[in-house]
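Read as amino acids, tokens; as here:

___
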Amino acid sequence: MWHLLDEHAAVCVGPGGAVATGPRPPGLCPGSFNPLHHGHLGLAQAAARHLGAAVHFELSVRNADKPELPPAEVERRVAQFAGVGPVWVTRAPTFLQKAELFPGAAFVLGWDTAVRVVDPKYYGGEAGRDSALAALRDRGCRLVVGGRVDASGVFRVWEAPAALGALAGLFVPLSEADFRADVSSTELRRKA
């Protein structure tokens, strides 16, 4: 099935296992889903309510900070979505690459991921970051951000850094009342 990624930039596996390449969803919740948990599901549901539109999931076999996932691992992670919801499999590790595949989409992410999205180190500096975020905006994309507990145990709701200026409008924060699930895949793996 993953040979389709050679011909198509994104492949959708439906909750019943059917494979398709379209139509593209209005909202996507990207993640590594190792494992999929109620926090991912709750964030996608909260974003869908906020947007008034469907939110699918997206698993990139490539990650900006990690090696490419082997096919067996992709299969294992995709299998978690059986009976749950559609998951798109891509080779798009960055939000700019995701925006090229899904123009106009709202990408749903947690506070910790949003912090990395605005970190200049991933772009070669502030000018590179601002250029990438402007490209997301120009493709009609938005970033819907759910709160997360930070490393010090404080629940954080998104507040765009002042340095982003007009690009701060790219971000749509969800309030704690909209969504809160104090769970992390890393912690679940530690406990397993």
Summary: The longest helix spans residues 38-51.
